[in-house]
Amino acid sequence: MIRSPNTPFGNDPPDSFLTIEGSAESELKVQRSRFLALTFPVRTEQEARVCLSETARRYHDSRHVCYGYKLGVGSASITRKSDDGEPSGTAGDPILAAIGKLELTDVLLVVVRYFGGVKLGTGGLARAYGQAGAMALAEATIREVQLGREFMIRFPYSQEKSIRRLLETRGGRLVDQQYGEAVSWRIWLAHSGWRGFAEALTELTAGNVDLEEPENQ
Questions:
Q1: Is residue 5's pLDDT more than 90?
Q2: Of 133, 122, 108, 116, nearest in space to 36 by CA
Q3: Which one, 13, 70, 79, 91, has the greatest CB density within 10 A?
Q4: In terms of CATH architecture, what is 22-140?
Q5: Which residues have CB under 8 Å from 84's CB, separation 6+?
């Protein structure tokens, strides 16, 4: 029996997402205009706003500070963008497209423009902003973040070996363990795998071991 799973069946988040390990930057020159692209890992909108404020202060003498960012995964993800005075759709959209092409999230990408006196046209602007953003992302280290949830299980000592094997074969991991009258484990399972693990656990233990959610989850 699975006690109080709080995520509806079929509505689990993905098992992982891609983001960047640290900040990176690059520079692109087009028709005497300089495009400085900077990318930052961010987890919240507040973090993104802080980075944007600091970048705007750092490049206060620039003509435009445009950006795009994406946070979260699945239906909970959000995106924000700004053309910062450039023609609509010529900066924020291509910046977001550069993020989307790599399927990244929790990423802020800022492109600062120093105008060089030559107008690039809407197509030229969009290409420049998108290329500058892509160059900065190419300099960043991309990492995969695993997603899942934790559960508690409690079982007799005699079942430890078989349950450990089941956890390993199902791609889960042991987070914490305590030994008293029985074995108590805190385990982690990927979003797509916890239901299958629960069913296998029920079969293995003849329904005598419950998969329970920790109180602080």
A1: no
A2: 133
A3: 91
A4: 2-Layer Sandwich (3.30)
A5: 64, 65, 66, 67, 91
